[in-house]
Amino acid sequence: MGNKCGAVWTEFPFTGSLLPWVVLAALSGVWLTGCGRPAEVSGPVVLYTSVPTEVIADIESAFEEHYPTVDLQVYRAGTGDVMVLIEKELAAGRVGADLIWVADLTGAEDLKEQGVLLQYRPPEADALLPNLVDENNTYFGARLLNMVVAYNTQAVTTPPTGYQDLLDPQYRGRLGHASPETSGAFLYFMGVLLHEPTYGEDFFRQLAANEPVIQDNTQTTELIAAGELDIGVTIDFTVRKLLLENPDASIAFVYPDTGVVMVPSPIAIFKDASNVEGAKVFEQFILSQSGQTLLRDLDGVVPVRLDVSPPADIASVTQLRVIPSDPAWIQANRDQILDIFSTFYGEQ
Description:
This protein is an alpha/beta fold. The protein has twelve helices and eleven strands.
C-alpha cells in the first residue's frame, strides 16, 4: 500500500478499526509514493520527544506503515528531561537525534538561538496557522496543547469555570497538575499566567497552598478519572484520549471562560541530523492534512491546520478565547519560573 494516489483505507493494527488515511491526496500527496513525494528515503530516523508514549506509538505505527523502509526510533521523556539530554549531548559534541518534538516553543527557541536547528520550510508550512511558523523556518507548531480544568463528574457536581476554581479550599489535597521541571506544557502555563496581571505569582502561591498532587499531565488526567483526585489542570487531549478509550469515564473538562493557555508544540530538525531526508519526510507527515487528521482521530489533538476540523464537540482554535503568550519572555525567564515553583512547592 502507499503507492497510489486517492482515498486509501487501512486497518491499523493498534486499533483494529478502519480509518481514512489519505484525505484529498492532492493536498497530502507530497509524502506519498507516486504522488510527487521526494526521493525514496530509508534508514533510521531518531526522534526525541515528549509526546505521550501511547500517542507516539500510534504515530510510529502509522508512519512506518507508509514508509516501511524507514525505522522511526523514539526516545520519549518529559520536555525538561529531553532538553537536559540534548544539552548534555551538545556539550559532548553531537546530538543523537534527527528531530525534536516537545511540548512548548521555549525549547525550540533556545535551540534556534544556539544555531543547531536546520532552516527548512516543508511544503505543508503554508497550510499552518501563521503563529505556528517560526520566522526563520527552524521549527513549526505540530500540536496545540490547551491547558484545561478537568474534573471528576461524580465528585464535582457544579462544573468549574476557570483556573481560579483550583484555589477553592474544598479541593485541598484533591487537585493535581504537572511540574514545570519536567512538563514543558506546564512550564509554559506558568509563564503565561505569571506574565498575566490577573494571575501573577499570587495565583501560584495560593495554588501551592492547596496542596496539589504533582504528576505528569497524563497521570493527572487518569487520577481525576479514577476519582483519586477531584480536579486539576491538564492538557485537553489527554482527557479526550481517555474518553475515546473509555467513554463512560467520570471525567470532563472546561476551557476557562476568562481565557485558556494554548501551548504550541514544536517540531524541528537538527542541522547535523544523520538522516536529514528521513527527518524532513517525518516532519511533513506530521504537518500534513492527513497527519493532522490522524492525530485528531486517534488522540483527540486539536489540529494546527484550519483545513482539518477539530475533534467532535470541540471549538476550533479561531473560536477559543486564548490568553496572549510571549514565548520569548517565557524562555528568557525560565529559571525565574522554576525558582518560583521551587519556592512555593518545595522539593518535588
